[in-house]
Amino acid sequence: MFSRLLEPHSGILFRAHGGVTEQPVTLAKLHESDIDEHNSPVYQHKEELYRARLRSGHMHMGVKDCGRVVHYFWASPPGSKVRLLWGLDYTVPKGEWYSWDGFTDPAFRNRGLMQKAKMSFRSQLSADESIVSAVQASNAPSIAALKRAGFKIVKTYSGVLLLRRLYIIRYGRRLRVGLGAF
């Protein structure tokens, strides 16, 4: 019981610059009609959450195979407010995009779709823009895909989850204790 109330947590913040020319997959802006139980189980019966994200200016980007979405992620433009992992609030700075909440259909995993989708998104940005993504430190496949797509580690953070809220203990190289906020 106690272990469910208080859990260790750590994450990594990655960044890559735009202006790349390689676009290995066709990336499409998705709409609510693209979502089904196969490609997006998290949105089943949560249509209002999906619509609220769109109303807030977030873009749902994806890769399709034979008309079916096989990989997606959300992209938030500069100035957007994003709720990161475990309740951290983040305002996307000027010149930056934030990529989050990605999913690859299990039948299409281990084909480099996340890496290719991130590269394709980077090709749509100018060289003075960048894209940032936060990943749980335990998510080895996503970490590897981001590195292969040219992302570099910007910061790391460690903390504890207490009643599903993240309290940051270490952020980057500076010790900081308190309710998490980037």
Briefly, what is this?
The chain has four helices and eleven strands, in the order αββαβββββαβαβββ. It is an alpha+beta fold.
Biggest sheet layout? 9 strands, mixed
Tally of helical segments:
4
Overall, the morphology is globular
Decide which structural class fits the backbone: alpha+beta
Question: Percent of residues in beta strands?
Answer: 35-45%
Rounded to the nearest angstrom, the distance between the terminal CA atoms is 30 Å
Topology:
Elements: H1 2-5, E1 6-17, E2 28-29, H2 47-55, E3 59-65, E4 68-76, E5 81-83, E6 89-91, E7 96-104, H3 113-123, E8 130-136, H4 140-148, E9 152-162, E10 165-171, E11 174-179
Parallel strand pairs: 7-8
Antiparallel strand pairs: 1-8, 1-9, 2-3, 3-4, 4-7, 5-6, 9-10, 10-11
Write a structural description:
There is one protein chain. The strands form 2 sheets. The chain has a 9-stranded mixed beta sheet. It is built from 4 helices and 11 strands. The protein is globular and about 45 Å long. With 182 residues, the chain is an alpha+beta fold. It is 18% helix and 42% strand.
